[in-house]
Recover the amino acids of this structure.
């Protein structure tokens, strides 16, 4: 079986003001012990997965490129030596433009990485500062160009819209810049103010000047229009790629395929079970060192929930849900099970049904949560 | 016990003037219940009654009291509902008595409701004992209140009893006054049975229990009795008295108050005000005063979830077992699906029924705005009544429409005369009379459309008078009015359940308020929703609800699906239950918005 690997690096130089991902600043002293623990976990998993082939790897964070060149090298070597890796593997790493140099990129390349995902968010310096990013627009452009020069042919740029103070013109300029850089993939996320983030506090205090609703909407429309026009096909709610450059690792999440997560806060989906490692970095290290599993939770969603997950994940993709796959996976007839839900969603113009698949309409993409909720059991 | 030692009385009081507390004290003082058995407001059985501090159903209790003259008396207290909705029930309870305690708050004085009930008691020739209660209050002014009772009602208050039911002052004096002043019942046990039904309730084991006052003759188990209005004949299985729990006795004779049961399945057969007689030796004539109770106010009741229709029907049927005045019949609304058009004695009755349905049967209901019964005279000569505004024919078919009017009596401090008159005028009232009760309090009488009363007259009256106003009303008949049907359109479609009938001159104003109100209630949806008010084809007001914001999870980070799923689940739970009306999802309260516009 082909399996995806996710490896989490929970460190950042500084937390962005909107971020609620499991990642921490000022843990420099834990980098080395963490890498050691992570390598130990990888090595252990290698044994478990022997006989399986790894065809996608994603090192995410946090900021993986915050690690030193040597640490990255250690990690990559451990990966290479622990698993049977498909020749055609998609091997991604997330990078912050403020934390890469030529040497580091070369080490990544030598270690097998063939796709870099740059968290850039916007090419407007004023916005970068106001959302707490550590790099400038120029640094971002230089980092992407450098990676391309070294030979990374598959590069993603993360962009955001709906940022405080952002204008439609600024967003258009950022999209044009990404297009001009000739990358292969763009992820475009709308800002959501998440609980517990500095932005949430600022919003509560009335200090977060988010764009007006109409402007936010216009930015969304702009994204869905301009990127495809520039040759980036929308293949998921927030993801756009040139032909053949869709992120295969992320597609595994949406297609209900197995993946193993390694490191603190990493998630796995394995044999119908969802597992999560502890988010607490010291305790992750300690548990690995003492030979324990670093698991924080594991659950096997009951059938009705598993089905709902399958559906709402698949519907995130433009291709939608392939009925045959669903019916085969759950040994059930999709329509028999979701008859009422489907007809009500079709009537509302949120989904389209064909013989082979169901997928979100344009309106459905915009109001995806309404569709997703509808499939959850009451 | 000798008939001469029986005293039957009821209590007349405005809400909060201390009726239930005084009743409790009487029960306690006579040792009818031990203090361990006492629960505050013993006679108000329903949770709702206790919570709202009102009496909805009549109750009775037999007290045994040994008076200062050494004789032991049987005192039957019949506790009556104190709300305008139940005026008929009150009149029947009073007809079962020879006397009444008029309780007046020593600080507040007479209120409209009290007055209405005192007149009912006087109509029934009851001996009235004035009780000035709450004399312990610092603001009590018994002298002034006594004077008010004399001036307004014309009762001699020289021997009024001063009490504080709360602290127990004057309880013995009240009992003595009952014994001395309330006449003993007349009646002959050798005559054929003649008994008045003043209430009933349904018992799951015994069937309908009729609450009766025997006028003549005797009733005992084994006897065949006949309900004279319904001609229903049953064999009596049990007779008994209330202490206040039901205790079986061998027989009930003249002057006695108690109950009879006899495997009567349907509460409709035991009508309040009807006469029970001996089926084999019937009396020639039933007691006077019986009338069939007809609903004054109607509304539609629909389950939010259509699948609960059967549960709603069963629940209504169960409530009807105990409440003959509740009427309902199936109704279909284009907007709401299957439900029931229900008739009530008044707004309080309506609210009580709704609340019981939701509470006791765990139903989630949509209630349409209450409506009165209109008489529609068609151009083709046909005349019919409608109790659902959506049933009004097109204007071309209507010759004219008549609506019910009531005589409304309002008692207020004189400072508020101006605002009350202004309000009543605005509500299409016709001034009838104004009279000073004392130097500071005034009673104003208006004729008003009932529809204005059930709309917001009382609420506005209360707020305009800072809560000082009290109101009572009675039907005076039908009158022609310039009425039109106001329709509400959501997304271009008329929502039948939102239609109301209003006076032509107020239609535009009401229409505007209503669409504004609905704009605030209807949540944003995937598309813009126009909300319009229309009379016929003419749009008179318009608002719109904007399309909702984008709503989609941006990413599923690092394969953490469970978290996203839990978020979706939480959102799903937080969703209010909505009624799908065409393409639009409408929350329950939208259908009541019509009532609470201001």
């Amino acid at each position: 079986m082909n399996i995806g690997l996710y490896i989490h690096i929970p460190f950042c130089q500084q937390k962005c003001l909107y971020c609620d991902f499991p990642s921490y600043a000022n843990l420099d002293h834990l980098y080395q012990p963490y890498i050691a623990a992570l390598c130990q976990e990888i090595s252990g998993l290698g044994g478990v997965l022997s006989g399986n082939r790894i065809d996608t790897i994603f090192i995410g964070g946090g900021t993986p490129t915050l690690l030193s060149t040597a640490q990255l090298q250690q990690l990559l070597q451990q990966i290479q030596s622990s698993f049977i890796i498909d020749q055609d593997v998609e091997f991604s790493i997330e990078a912050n433009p403020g934390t890469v140099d030529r040497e580091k990129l070369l080490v990544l390349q030598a270690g097998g990485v063939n796709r870099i995902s740059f968290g850039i968010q916007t090419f407007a310096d004023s916005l970068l500062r106001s959302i707490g990013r550590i790099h400038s627009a120029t640094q971002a452009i230089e980092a992407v160009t450098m990676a391309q020069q070294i030979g990374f042919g598959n590069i993603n740029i993360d962009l955001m819209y709906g940022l405080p103070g952002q204008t439609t013109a600024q967003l258009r300029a950022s999209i044009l810049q990404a297009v001009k850089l000739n990358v292969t993939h763009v992820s475009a996320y709308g800002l959501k103010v998440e609980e517990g983030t500095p932005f949430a506090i600022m919003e509560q205090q009335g200090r977060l000047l988010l764009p007006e609703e109409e402007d936010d909407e216009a930015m969304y429309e702009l994204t869905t229009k301009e990127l495809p026009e520039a040759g980036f096909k929308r293949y998921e709610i927030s993801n756009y790629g040139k032909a053949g450059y869709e992120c295969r690792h992320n597609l595994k999440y949406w297609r209900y395929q197995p993946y193993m997560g390694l490191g603190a806060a990493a998630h796995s989906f394995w044999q119908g079970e969802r597992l999560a490692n502890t988010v607490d970095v010291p305790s992750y290290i300690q548990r690995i060192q003492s030979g324990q599993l670093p698991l924080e939770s594991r659950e096997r969603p009951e059938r009705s929930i598993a089905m709902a997950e399958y559906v709402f994940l698949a519907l995130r993709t433009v291709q939608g849900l392939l009925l045959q796959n669903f019916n085969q996976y759950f040994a059930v007839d999709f329509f028999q099970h979701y008859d009422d839900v489907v007809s009500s969603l079709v009537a509302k113009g949120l989904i389209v049904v064909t013989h082979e698949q169901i997928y979100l309409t344009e309106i459905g993409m915009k109001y995806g949560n309404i569709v997703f909720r509808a499939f959850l059991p009451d | 016990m000798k008939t001469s030692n029986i005293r039957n009385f009821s209590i007349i009081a405005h809400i909060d003037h201390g009726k239930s507390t005084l009743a409790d004290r009487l029960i306690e003082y006579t040792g009818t219940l031990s203090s361990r058995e006492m629960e505050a407001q013993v006679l108000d059985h329903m949770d709702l009654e206790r919570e709202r501090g009102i009496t909805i159903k009549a109750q009775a209790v037999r007290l045994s009291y040994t008076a200062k003259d050494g004789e032991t008396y049987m005192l039957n207290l019949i506790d009556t509902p104190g709300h305008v909705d139940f005026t008929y029930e009150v009149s029947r309870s009073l007809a079962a008595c020879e006397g009444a305690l008029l309780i007046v708050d020593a600080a507040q004085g007479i209120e409209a409701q009290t007055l209405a009930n005192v007149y009912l008691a006087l109509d029934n020739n009851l001996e009235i004992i004035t009780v000035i209660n709450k004399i312990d209050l610092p603001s009590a002014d018994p002298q002034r209140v006594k004077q008010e009772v004399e001036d307004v009602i014309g009762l001699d208050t020289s021997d009024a009893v001063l009490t504080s039911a709360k602290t127990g002052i004057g309880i013995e004096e009240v009992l003595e006054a009952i014994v001395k002043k309330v006449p003993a019942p007349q009646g002959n046990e050798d005559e054929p049975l003649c008994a008045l039904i003043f209430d009933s309730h349904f018992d799951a084991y015994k069937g309908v229990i009729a609450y009766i006052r025997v006028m003549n003759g005797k009733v005992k188990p084994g006897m065949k009795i006949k309900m004279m209005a319904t001609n229903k004949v049953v064999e009596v299985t049990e007779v008994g008295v209330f202490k206040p729990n039901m205790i079986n006795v061998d027989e009930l004779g003249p002057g006695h108050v108690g109950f009879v049961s006899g495997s009567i399945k349907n509460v409709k057969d035991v009508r309040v005000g009807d006469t029970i007689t001996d089926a084999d030796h019937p009396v020639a004539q039933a007691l006077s005063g019986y009338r069939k109770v007809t609903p004054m106010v109607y509304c539609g009741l629909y389950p939010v979830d259509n699948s609960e229709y059967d549960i709603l029907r069963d629940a209504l049927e169960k409530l009807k077992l105990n409440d003959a005045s509740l009427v309902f019949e199936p109704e279909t609304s284009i907007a709401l699906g299957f439900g029931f058009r229900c008739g009530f004695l008044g707004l309080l009755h309506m609210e009580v029924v709704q609340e019981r349905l939701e509470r006791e049967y765990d139903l989630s209901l949509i209630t349409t705005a209450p409506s009165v019964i209109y008489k529609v005279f068609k151009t083709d000569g046909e005349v019919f009544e409608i109790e659902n505004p959506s049933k009004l024919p097109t204007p071309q078919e209507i010759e004219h429409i008549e609506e019910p009017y009531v005589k409304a009596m309002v008692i207020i401090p004189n400072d508020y005369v101006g605002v009350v008159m202004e309000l009543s005028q605005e509500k299409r009232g016709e001034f009838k009379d104004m009279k000073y009760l004392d130097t500071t309090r005034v009673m104003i009488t208006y004729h008003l459309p009932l529809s204005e009363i059930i709309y917001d007259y009382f609420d506005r009256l209360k707020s305009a008078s800072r809560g000082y106003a009290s109101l009572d009303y009675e039907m005076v008949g039908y009158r022609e009015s310039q009425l039109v049907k106001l329709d509400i359109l959501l997304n271009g479609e008329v929502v039948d359940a939102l239609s109301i009938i209003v006076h032509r001159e107020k239609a535009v104003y009401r229409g505007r308020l209503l669409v504004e109100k609905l704009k605030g209630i209807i949540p944003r949806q995937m598309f813009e929703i126009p909300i319009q008010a229309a009379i016929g084809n003419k749009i008179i007001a318009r608002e719109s609800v904007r399309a909702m914001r984008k709503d989609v999870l941006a990413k599923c980070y690092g394969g953490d699906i469970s978290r996203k799923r839990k978020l979706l689940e939480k959102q799903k739970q937080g969703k209010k239950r909505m009624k799908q009306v065409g393409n639009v999802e409408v929350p329950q309260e939208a259908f009541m918005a019509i009532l609470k516009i201001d």
